Each structure stands twice: as C-alpha cells, then as structure tokens.
Amino acid sequence: MSQLGMSALSFSGHSLPFARVDEAGRVQRDISVVPVSVVIAVKNEARNLPRCLESVRNFGEVVVVDSQSTDATVEIARSFTANVAQFYYRGGWPKKRQWALDNIPLKHDWVLLLDADESVTPELAAEIRQALNNPEINGYYAGLEMFFLGRQLRHCGATFYKLSLFRRSMGHFECRTSEQDESMCDMEVHEHIIIKGSAGRLKHKLVHCNVDSLARYIQKHNEYSNWETRVWSENAVRADALAPALFGSQAQRRRWLRKHFLRWPGSPLAFFIYKYVLRAGFLDGVPGVTYCAFQAIQLFHVKAKLYEMEIACTAPGQAPPERVPHVRN
Q1: Which helix or strand (DSSP H or E) is residue 222 part of?
Q2: Does domain 3-212 have CATH number 3.40.50.300?
Q3: What is the percent of the chain with per-residue pLDDT over 70, rounded to a whole number?
Q4: What are the residues whose beta carbons fall under 8 Å from the beta carbon of 105, sequence distance 6 or more?
Q5: More confident residue, 120 or 253
Q6: At what angle do helices 285-312 and 214-234 cross, to 10 degrees?
Q7: Are 35 and 109 in contact (CB under 8 A)?
Q8: Which residues partner with 139 through β-bridges?
Q9: How many CA atoms lie within 13 A of 139 on its CB side?
Q10: pTM of whole model > 0.85?
C-alpha cells in the first residue's frame, strides 16, 4: 500500500518532497490532472525551483516566468517539462506576474501563483481540485507554512494568507506605484490580487521553504525595502489598490498597522519585541530570533531610506515636501 513520504528523486543534491512513494521507494503519480495553470516567477532560483516543480507535476500546466537567470534555473524548468517565458523589465508597470497574466496564453482559467520557494502538498492539491467546483467562488486564499534556516516557524507571527488561486478572468494585481525600476525588484512581492466576486480560504497550506543563503535573502529584502520606501513616500492610496483597513482582510489589516506604526519612534525595536516576545518567536530557537531580527531590520531600512529621501528633497530652511512622510527611527 502506498504512503506519503519524501521523494527519492533529487536534483543537484536537493531532495524533492511531496511525491507519493510505495514501500519500495518507487514514486507513485496521481493520474488525475488538476485543471489549473501554475505560474512561477523566478530569477536565479536553481536551488529552490526543483522542489516547487516536483510538487506541481500533476497540474494541467506549469509556466516558469524567468528574468534572464544566470544559473541553471531555465535548464531545471525544462527538465520538468515546464514552459519557460522570459520577462524583460524596463521599469514601471506591469511587473512580472501581471505581465504573464496579460500576455501568456494560459490553458486554464484557474491560475495558481507560486514563488520558487513554495511547494504544494498532495493534500492541498486534492483540496484545490475540489475547490474548483464551487461556482460561487472566484478566488482562494492560501496560507503559508514558513520554514527558515531548516526549521518550521510555528510562532513569530510568520503565518499569513495570500490570494494565490483565482479565476484568471476575474483577478488582477493591484498597482501601488508605477514609479519603479529594477532596484525595487521586477515582480510583485507585496502587491495583492484583487478579484471580482467572493473569495474563500483553503484549509491546507503551501509550504514555504527557502534554501538560499542568508546573503541572497538579505539581497532580495534590500530590494523589497526599496520598493516599500517608494510606496510609503507617495503617502496616498491609488484607486486600484487595497486600502489599509483595521477591520478588513488580513492584508488590509497588516497594511493599516504598518502605515500607522511606521512613524513611531523606535518602531523597529518594538516590532522585534512584538514578534519575538509577544508572538513567542523565542520558541523557534535560533531561526526564530534570526527571522524576527531580519523583519525588524527591514522595517528599520524602510525608515532610514524614507529619512534619506526626506533630507535629499529638502533644501535648507524649507519644510519637507508633503509627499514624503516625516519619520524618526
């Protein structure tokens, strides 16, 4: 009788989880296909991508949207028979994922958006297959099980939900700022999908397991803080964007808290205390304190970059421009 287990397959020394194997270790495939187009945005993700692609072998279509990777990302994608599209970012809007939704002729109306460091468990795949049958729902939020430095973060406030599965004809990314360039990352990271109609929530979660080095992690989050600095410097909510709301969705609530919390003196330290002490991040050991520290440091980076923008735009003896919020670290 077959059982769930770790796949015996590997690519460049990385095990590929979430395959079904029998007692002899042979990989068992589910012959039924999930009628969903999986879109994976990547750049130099050779270490993370095999795990992700292995987990969606039974989906109807897999498209890897690359940004001229210089490692083995493209070769890995093709070895899994995924379609590869190249995205050339030249600033502004749209960014990578919205460009893919607008320009790639996907086979299915339902789309699942994944990062290279995310994987679909067999239980989640089965739930997705059933969820597609509900005609009243146009999108689903999927939670993340966060793994960091080889350990699952069960605390730290690390779990959050994002609208990852939706009908392509009913959803699009919000645009929070069009004044962007390559230094701010070429894909949507903190932008969310906005759908028409009702959304549900999936019971099973995506597995988020990043195996990149901390140096790569820091590099990417430096780009994210560049983007966030630009967004908050505009100090306005665009018409086609989720509005911050304390009693809205999880994304709106987090956005509302960040908007008001950002200006507090000492907010990065307070944020660390909240995640490490009040959300019991200390129970996650060294990965927990490292994760909480990096989250607080990124907030500090945003505040510092906002201050840098403020003094750069202010001539001696003049008040700061209205669009740049006054901040104190």
Answers
A1: helix 214-234
A2: no
A3: 85
A4: none
A5: 120
A6: 40
A7: no
A8: 166, 199
A9: 21
A10: no
